[in-house]
Write a structure and sequence with these properties.
alpha/beta, Methyltransferase, Methionine Synthase (B12-binding Domains), Chain A, domain 1, Rossmann fold, 2 domains, 5-stranded parallel β-sheet, 10 helices, 5 strands
Length: about 210
């Protein structure tokens, strides 16, 4: 663990964080250790956001930093690490919504925590989710959306998954914006995650504890 890298990320020192990442990789540090440092840093960022010390612009910058560091680290991860994946998660921002910051952080955190993740991107049609479940065969499906219009799209997606006979094969979580348990019930999802760590906890629960 590199305290220096963790706090460079948490303090939003982008250039310093990238330089430290490259130094650690060049010195032979395990790439997964660096990703774990990123996870620890994002926990600090999340706490600062909850405490009112950070705001949306800081979260956006932190997300961009994660993408940059991830681009440096992922090519160095050995294939053996992939073999130890815990479960498969299919995720995307639903039809009618193009917000991806929250989704991207969830994808990153799931990846760091050992899940095989397929990201469908934004404004994803209902049928794309259905087709991807058939081909990718995930354990968990994540539906993201920030706009209130996304709630109807979430429900339509869950209904289509059920109509295709796939509902019993997957657990479905939703998240983003003002998603709460009322929205979860409306959409017909199994659970909602208030943040990326909650999404990871749900995925762990569902894959480690069986369907």
């Amino acid at each position: 663990m590199s305290e220096e890298l963790i706090y460079a990320i948490a303090d939003l020192q982008e250039e310093n964080a990238l330089a430290l990442t490259r130094q650690l990789l060049a010195s032979g540090t395990d790439p997964l250790t660096i990703l774990n440092d990123c996870r620890a840093a994002m926990e600090i960022v999340g706490k600062r956001f909850a405490a009112g010390e950070y705001f949306i612009p800081e979260l956006i910058l932190a997300g961009e930093m994660l993408k940059s560091i991830s681009a440096e680290v992922k090519p160095c991860i050995k294939q053996a690490a992939v073999a130890g994946k815990k479960g498969k998660v299919l995720i995307g921002t639903v039809k009618g919504d193009i917000h991806d910051l929250g989704k991207d952080i969830v994808v990153f955190m799931l990846d760091v925590n050992g899940f095989e993740v397929k990201d469908l991107g934004v404004d994803v049609p209902v049928q794309t989710f259905v087709d991807s479940i058939k081909s990718f065969q995930p354990d968990v499906v994540g539906l993201s959306g920030l706009l209130t219009i996304a709630y109807t799209s979430m429900k339509e997606t869950v209904d289509a998954i059920a109509a295709a006979g796939l509902r019993d094969n997957v657990k479905i979580m939703i998240g983003g914006g003002t998603v709460d348990d009322q929205v979860r019930r409306f959409a017909g999802a199994d659970a909602f995650g208030k943040d990326a760590m909650a999404a990871v906890a749900l995925a762990r629960q569902w894959t480690n504890g069986g369907m």
